[in-house]
Design goal:
The complex is a heterodimer of chains A (about 350) and B (about 450).
Chain A lengths: L1 H5 E3 L22 E3 L6 E2 L2 H23 L3 H5 L1 H24 L3 H19 L7 H10 L4 H17 L5 H18 L2 H19 L4 H17 L2 H28 L13 H17 L5 H19 L1 H15 L7 H14 L2
Antiparallel strand pairs in A: 1-2, 2-3
Helix pairs in contact in A: 2-4, 2-5, 4-5, 4-6, 5-6, 6-7, 6-8, 7-8, 8-9, 9-10, 10-11, 11-13, 12-13, 13-14, 13-15, 14-15
Chain B lengths: L12 H7 L3 H16 L10 H8 L2 H11 L3 H20 L5 H4 L7 H20 L2 H14 L6 H12 L8 H17 L2 H18 L9 H22 L3 H17 L3 H18 L2 H18 L2 H18 L2 H18 L2 H17 L3 H17 L3 H28 L3 H13 L9 H5 L5
Classes of the chains: A mainly alpha (about 350), B mainly alpha (about 450).
Keywords (chain B): Cytoplasm, Repeat, TPR repeat
Subcellular location (chain B): Cytoplasm
GO cellular component, one term (chain B): cytoplasm
Chain lengths: ~350, ~450
């Protein structure tokens, strides 16, 4: 099938001395070569397939000018560097989108290539490597040792140059926090998430969706600790932020119905959906149900599906959320008018 | 390797002694001696992450992180927005203002810590639904910031206490309203102050609250309201809008009556009387002056009582009751002399002089003015002294005028002779008073 036609076998012994080829993914002795670009090598078909799906399909031809050692490429080192930087960016974006969709295994090749190229360009222990380390740490979700390794590297790089930018700080703390939660060390995790929220607020503001994700992660820790009122308070804050964001998106979409804008959170839809569903479940399981809160979260979910999947599914969810909103008392006019506004948006 | 100690003779004893002089064993010896010198290894006093973070991060970061760790994210949001608003204000403020001279809030650790402490307590209370504690904490924050450059913080916290949905009728919110009234009054925003004051009074009446120093809030609100109404009435009075001024002053009077402060009641009645006097309604004015005088007498505030009496006399004079006015003022002369109220004494004398002056009895008027002037010389009151001087001179001028005006208008030669004679002798005549006294300073 297609996978086999992409790779052709090479004989390691036939290669000149000093020109040994190593597998793209595991760095062992390579026996296969990508037939399209001929500069990428693999040890076995599984690795070739994994790499193809992970990143190689996108960057196959881009690797050729970088890896092929010709006289021209040796002279134009700056040109090669720009090409490698572009490659790093592509790898990063691919890895991030795969991670947001939840495909951790598939994100690994992209993240690894990103790291290797970054080391080539910037050097082994610099702060520009931190995003690559963070991606790798996230891709290795579940393998604590590997995660630990990468995060320690990242932390060390950040410690050496603390003025590296607020985004990097907040991403680092978020990853560290998640690691500690997985390890069970809740206090350190709280400390990390607190720092994460602080830096995210400094960078993006109090009402940003990035900060809201931080709140959600912290609420998770508090749930484990059993502090329910805090969790309620945090969830209501997250719901408020997302509600505002989604309402604004829907309004802009209504205005530009001809040219739907590229949503900034396109890649995070799965994450956000999961988050909202967790919140809704939590609110509903609570003994003292606050209908206003439940209504807000259900409304957010409905709006999200509307933005994401178009009208049909959105309307389905809308009807179900309207059903939940019904028990809301007449004092809470916001809850009552939600579904009506959404129907207006749909043009019904 | 001596598993059987003592069974076999030591054959390696000499060899081990030789070995002790090799490099490796020398190193080991120095290491051991060092360890012995340093003492037993201390238990690892490694700092925790949190302690390290305290050293490395800025005060703002450590306070914010602490708030978030404890779960107080709303306090965190509030603190961050306060700091941001401070920075925005500084970016657009005019240079040279008082608030700019102080360091920005983000650099003042102690203030940030206090804010975070109280806000976290308030958030804790809010989660459990105890609204009164929420308001108490915010009130405490408002009272904490006493520096003049922190006025914006006081306004912010008092407003956050009173503008809440739940808990705005609690004791703390009522006290915050009273503080807001005073702040607006100091700033000069009278309408705002009045609004807050009326709300405060109503709430304090409903609740019967006491403030943090133990004084009843209702009385405090009424006192502030009287001051507000008095200031509000100044503009209409200046514009001769007597009706509006009187409405405002009557409101103020009723508030003063509620405030149970006799001094204030007397003062309020006096102001109302003055307004009526200006409007021309002397009979009502007299009533109010009488009330004021009674209150001040009961308070033993002779000074103000005398002031009220002088005003009463003016009213009497305007109505035409000269004898009563004179009698009243004569009584006052004795009263103020005995109480040692010299400035009032001067006023009384001048007032008496005024009455006679208005009746064209210039000689008597001059007498009284002169007495007033003499008293003024003993005090250091320059304004009154100058007034007395002018009045004395004016009275004398009118007196002499009166004497010779008939001669001026007639055309007979006898009259002319008399005028010429007067021109020569003028200045050396006296009008029944001691010449030395009034020549030297009076003619300046």
């Amino acid at each position: 099938m297609e996978a086999e036609s992409q790779a052709s076998a090479i004989i390691p012994l036939a290669l000149p001395k000093g020109a040994e080829k190593f597998c793209e993914l595991c760095q062992r002795e390579a026996r296969l070569q990508c037939s399209k670009c001929r500069v990428t090598f693999y040890c076995a078909a599984e690795h070739q397939q994994a790499d193809w799906v992970g990143i190689h399909e996108r960057i196959c031809q881009l690797l050729v000018p970088i890896r092929a050692l010709t006289l021209c490429s040796l002279r134009q080192t700056s040109h090669t560097e720009t090409q490698i930087k572009k490659l790093i960016e592509i790898c990063r974006l691919v890895a991030q989108s795969k991670l947001s969709e939840g495909k951790h295994q598939e994100a690994l090749p992209a993240a690894q290539l990103c790291l290797r190229c970054s080391i080539d360009v910037h050097g082994p222990n610099t702060v520009q490597l931190v995003p690559a380390y963070l991606l790798l740490a996230e891709a290795n979700m579940g393998e604590k040792q590997a995660q630990n390794d990468f995060l320690s590297q990242a932390e060390w790089a950040v410690l050496k140059s603390p003025k590296c930018g607020l985004t990097i700080h907040h991403q680092l703390h978020r990853s560290l926090g998640r690691l500690h939660v997985a390890a069970g060390d809740l206090d350190t995790a709280l400390h990390n998430f607190a720092n994460d929220i602080y830096f995210a607020t400094e960078e993006y503001g109090l009402d940003s969706t990035v900060t809201s994700r931080g709140y959600f992660l912290m609420a998770d820790v508090f749930t484990k600790q059993g502090k329910i009122p805090t969790v309620h308070s945090l969830y209501s804050e997250v719901a408020r932020i997302w509600h505002r964001h989604l309402t604004r998106l829907l309004e802009t979409r209504k205005e530009s119905i001809q040219n739907p804008p590229v949503d900034s959170f396109y890649a995070e839809r799965v994450e956000v959906d999961e988050m909202l569903r967790t919140m809704l479940e939590f609110e509903q399981k609570d003994t003292r149900k606050d209908p206003a809160r439940i209504a807000v979260v259900a409304h957010c979910l409905a709006m999200l599906s509307l933005v994401r999947d178009g009208m049909a599914y959105g309307i389905l969810l809308l009807r179900s959320s309207k059903h939940r909103i019904k028990p809301v008392t007449s004092n809470d006019t916001r809850g009552f008018f939600f579904p009506q506004r959404l129907f207006l948006f749909c043009g019904l | 390797m001596n598993t059987a100690v003592g069974f076999l003779p030591e054959i390696n004893a000499n060899k081990s002694k030789q070995r002790s002089s090799t490099y490796y064993s020398r190193m080991k010896q120095t290491k051991e001696s060092l360890r012995a010198r340093l003492g037993p290894a201390r238990p690892a006093e490694s700092l925790t992450r949190k302690e390290i973070a305290l050293f490395r991060s800025s005060p703002k970061q450590s306070i914010c992180v602490r708030l978030l760790q404890e779960g107080f994210h709303r306090s965190f949001s509030e603190l961050v927005s306060l700091l941001r608003s401070d920075q925005d204000w500084r970016a657009t403020a005019e240079p040279g203002s008082l608030r700019l001279r102080a360091p920005p809030l983000v650099e003042q650790r102690h203030k940030m810590e206090t804010i975070s402490q109280h806000l976290s307590l308030a958030e804790e209370a809010e989660r459990t639904g105890i609204w009164s504690t929420v308001c108490e904490e915010r009130l405490l924050l408002g009272r904490f910031f006493s520096d003049p450059e922190d006025l914006w913080l006081r306004f912010y916290f008092y407003h956050s206490c009173t503008d809440r949905e739940k808990g705005r009728f609690s004791r703390a919110a009522t006290e915050a309203r009273a503080c807001l009234t005073e702040l607006y009054l100091d700033r000069g925003e009278l309408e705002e102050a009045r609004q807050q004051g009326e709300l405060c009074r109503k709430q304090a009446e409903d609740g019967g609250w006491l403030d943090s120093d133990g004084r009843p809030l209702k009385l405090r609100a009424c006192r502030d309201l009287w001051k507000i109404y008095r200031e509000l009435a100044e503009a209409p009075l200046a514009a001769e809008d007597h009706k509006k001024a009187l409405t405002l002053l009557h409101e103020g009077n009723s508030r003063a009556a509620e405030s149970e402060d006799k001094h204030m009641k007397g003062e309020a009645a006096f102001q109302v009387g003055l307004a009526y006097q200006r409007a021309g309604d002397h009979s009502t004015a007299k009533k109010f002056f009488n009330t004021s005088m009674e209150i001040f007498h009961s308070l033993d505030g002779t000074d103000r009582a005398v002031k009220a009496c002088i005003a009463l006399a003016k009213s009497l004079k305007s109505e035409g009751y000269f004898e009563e006015a004179v009698a009243c003022l004569e009584r006052l002369v004795a009263m103020s002399r005995s109480s040692g109220l010299h400035h009032r004494l001067i006023d009384v004398h001048l007032c008496l002089g005024n009455i006679y002056f208005s009746r064209s009895q210039y000689v008597k008027a001059a007498e009284y003015y002169l007495q007033g002037y003499k008293v003024a010389c003993t005090t250091e009151d320059v304004a009154r002294l100058q007034r007395a001087q002018v009045l004395v001179a004016s009275a004398h001028a009118h007196a002499t005028n009166g004497k010779y005006s008939a001669k001026l208008t007639s055309t007979s030669p006898a009259a002319l002779q008399a005028l010429l004679a007067w021109k020569v002798k003028r200045g050396r005549e006296d009008l029944s008073v001691d010449s030395e006294d009034y020549y030297s300073p009076a003619w300046f």
